[in-house]
Write a structure and sequence with these properties.
The structure is a single chain. This protein is mainly beta and 664 residues long. The chain has one domain: Neuraminidase, CATH 2.120.10.30. The protein contains nine helices and 33 strands. The protein has a nine-stranded antiparallel β-sheet with strand order 16-17-19-20-21-26-25-24-23, with no helix packed on it. It has a six-stranded mixed β-sheet with strand order 11-10-15-14-13-12, with no helix packed on it. A five-stranded antiparallel β-sheet has the order 1-30-29-28-27, with no helix packed on it. This is PhoX family phosphatase. It comes from Paracoccus alkanivorans.
């Protein structure tokens, strides 16, 4: 380990979350980087030395340097946002724009039920964690109760666990070498209980949000919660195991990253980096070998398979096929079984934001978060019925899954993943629609979809017929050429898709780059923020996003750091229209080591919920700390700043002092 290599690159669960491998796409399908380069080259944008970056020529060299030392304190001309910008930087605390409060609402270990035990980090147990708020909150959704703005259900994903930050006494550092002790069965079971999700009633009283611990709808979902498998792949032989010969029942969900709330008020969880939970070796010549290789299974980031045979592929070779799906939860029935909806495909799902199209069908946009993987959307066969919730409860079992192909003429085509069409036939190993969905990645490979730079959250705007695609980065390209001169897309970009006729169900549309991320003061980076963006307003690594009820885009990030960008992750406001298009400004930033997740504005825009994930995960590249960060020696003890308490991932409620609309 180098002197400045962040410790999150050393601890195995942190490596899993970063998806830092070279990518698993074996095809030669033309990448988005090549398409971007070719498109803008055709427009004649590449000139002289600026040809070093494919997109940077959309902004002049003087414009790239124009941000200077300015800080946005009020409205930018043409902007839909108005707030004093937070100064970018790195420290142990969180920071919000002046005039706003950022109140910690729920922390890892907080009670979800009135009878739950108090959090005791030195004496954790599976039974306690099952009734406490889980670890590493990611997606956050708000579901109003009885139409109220100040009373509802908060739904929160718990993506994964960081053992080195959670458990005392397991990390040893000697002569610069980090050792983590082998997992015990008790520790594994606590980790499993800390995964999944939380449904909890919250209420705003005297301007501040509080959990309602005796709420009848409160619920914890874990890696052991019984679930039903539904849709075209349900019951297929490839999903059958010794514990479930029917192939229709599965225990739990893991690595739920972003998610969604459906128009009918159910909670969507998206299973992402499932490969890290499996150990073992498939039997020689096993039929799933190619399938699992395409998904990176097994990765062995967790040791669950030592104590639970279902996570050992040598003992239960079909179990991985039961993960990597979209999960739907009926929050109005805490006794209901969550359903894994196989019609939406199996891959490393980042999220599942949705909108109702003009004809009443519902469209879900889906990103496969790995380097050189794809962008998808799912269009329901049935139509949403706003007057009959029950009529909508199985809409996700029937519909068409599409994968995107972007072309250099600025068009995008949505290719249907339907058995029997094109190459998706028995000759290529697809005997049924179930096979197409179980091996969604391989099916998309054959359709020559466009490999992307880590597709993350995708947010549709039904009123404008658009969708915004967050592409975090891709530092694993190995060859530079005239068509693809930016070998390392270290900072990511955001693509704006406009569907034909403004119809989200359309199978064709157009695409533009909203912004190429990174520091615009460094010409070789090729960032394309507007010149009104200040030195605090730019960011790298876009991850999650939200479109609020006023149609404004908010972006959160994952991967900013002292060494890479000189700033922590945060929540940025991004203009998408008019003269201010491409202008970004910093509204909130996280403590050192944290990731900004779960941007969730309430419908009345008086509250913005955000999730701070894995704070203190890393510390070597922060000059004020400069060493590995773990339970006993943390780079921050946010949010409690109590020596008796570890760092705790938390959900934060942001409100305007004196009331009023966020960001205005």
């Amino acid at each position: 380990m180098s002197d400045r290599e962040p410790s999150r690159h050393v601890f195995r669960t942190s490596q899993l979350e970063e998806a830092d491998g070279p990518g698993l796409n074996p095809t030669n399908n033309r990448t988005m980087g090549e398409i971007i380069a070719a498109r803008f080259s055709r427009r004649g944008f590449l000139r002289g030395s600026m040809a070093a970056t494919a997109i940077s020529a959309t902004v002049s060299p003087m414009a790239l340097l124009a941000a200077g030392d300015a800080h946005a304190q009020g409205a930018v001309e043409g902007s839909v946002f108005n707030f004093p910008e937070v100064k970018a930087g790195v420290d142990a605390d969180h920071h919000v724009a002046e005039g706003y409060d950022a109140d910690v609402l729920l922390r890892w270990g907080d009670k979800v039920f009135a009878d739950a035990p108090e959090f005791d980090p030195a004496n954790q147990s599976e039974a306690a964690q099952e009734r406490q708020f889980g670890y590493n909150n990611d997606f956050v959704g708000f579901i109003p109760l009885d139409g109220a703005d100040d009373h509802g259900l908060l739904v929160v994903n718990h993506e994964y666990t960081n053992e080195h930050l959670m458990f005392p006494g397991i990390v040893t550092v000697s002569d610069g070498e980090i050792t983590v002790s082998e997992a015990t069965e008790d520790r594994v079971n606590i980790e499993m209980a800390a995964h999944g999700g939380t449904v909890i009633e919250i209420r705003k009283t005297d301007g501040k949000w509080q959990p309602v611990l005796d709420g009848m709808l409160n619920r914890r979902i874990t890696a052991k919660t019984p679930m039903t498998i539904s849709g075209p792949a349900a019951g297929h032989a490839r999903l059958q195991t010794s514990a479930d010969p029917s192939g229709t029942e599965v225990l739990g969900t893991v690595n739920n990253c972003a998610g969604g709330v459906t128009p009918w008020g159910t909670y969507i969880m998206a299973e992402e980096n499932i490969h890290g939970y499996f150990i073992g070796t498939l039997p020689e010549g096993h039929a799933e070998a190619t399938n699992y290789e395409r998904m990176g299974i097994p990765d062995e980031s967790y040791e669950w398979g030592r104590f639970h045979d279902r996570f050992d592929v040598s003992k239960e070779p079909n179990e991985p096929n039961r993960f990597g799906w979209i999960v739907e939860v009926d929050v109005m029935d805490p006794e209901s079984k969550p359903k894994k909806r196989t019609a939406l495909g199996r891959f490393k799902h980042e999220g599942a934001a949705s909108a109702v199209a003009g004809d009443g069908r519902v469209v879900f946009y889906l990103g496969d978060d790995e380097r050189f993987d794809y962008v998808y959307k799912f269009v329901t066969a049935g139509k949403y019925n706003p007057d009959d919730r029950a009529a909508n409860m199985d809409l996700l079992d029937e519909g068409t899954l599409y994968v995107a192909r972007f072309d250099e003429d600025g068009s995008v085509e949505w290719l249907p993943l339907v058995h029997g069409e094109g190459p998706l036939t028995a000759e290529n190993g697809f005997e049924s629609q179930a096979d197409v969905l179980i091996e969604t990645r391989r099916a998309a490979d054959l359709l020559e979809a466009t490999p992307m730079d880590r597709p993350e959250d995708i947010e549709p705007d039904a009123e404008k017929g658009r969708a915004y695609v967050m592409l975090t980065n891709n530092t694993k390209r190995e060859e530079a050429n005239a068509a693809n001169p930016r070998v390392e897309n270290a900072f990511g970009h955001i693509i704006e898709i406009t569907e034909d006729g403004g119809d989200l169900t359309a199978t064709r549309g157009t695409w533009e780059i909203l912004v190429q991320c990174g520091d615009p003061a460094i010409a070789d980076v090729g960032a394309t923020f507007s010149t009104a963006t200040t030195e605090d307003g730019w960011f790298g690594m876009p991850d999650n996003c939200a479109i609020d009820s006023d149609g404004r885009l908010w972006v959160t990030t994952d991967g900013n750091s002292p060494s890479d960008t000189g700033r922590t992750d945060g929540l940025w406001a991004m203009d998408t229209e008019g003269a201010a298009r491409g202008t970004s400004r910093l509204f909130y930033r996280v403590p050192v080591g944290g990731e900004m997740c779960g941007p969730c504005p309430t419908p009345d825009l008086t509250t913005f919920f955000v999730a701070v994930q894995h704070p203190a995960d890393g510390g070597e590249d922060w000059e004020e700390f400069g060493r590995p960060s773990y339970y006993e020696d943390l780079s921050t003890r946010w949010p409690d700043f109590d020596d008796a308490m570890p760092v705790r991932p938390s959900v934060v409620a942001i409100t305007k002092q004196g009331g009023g609309k966020i960001g205005a």
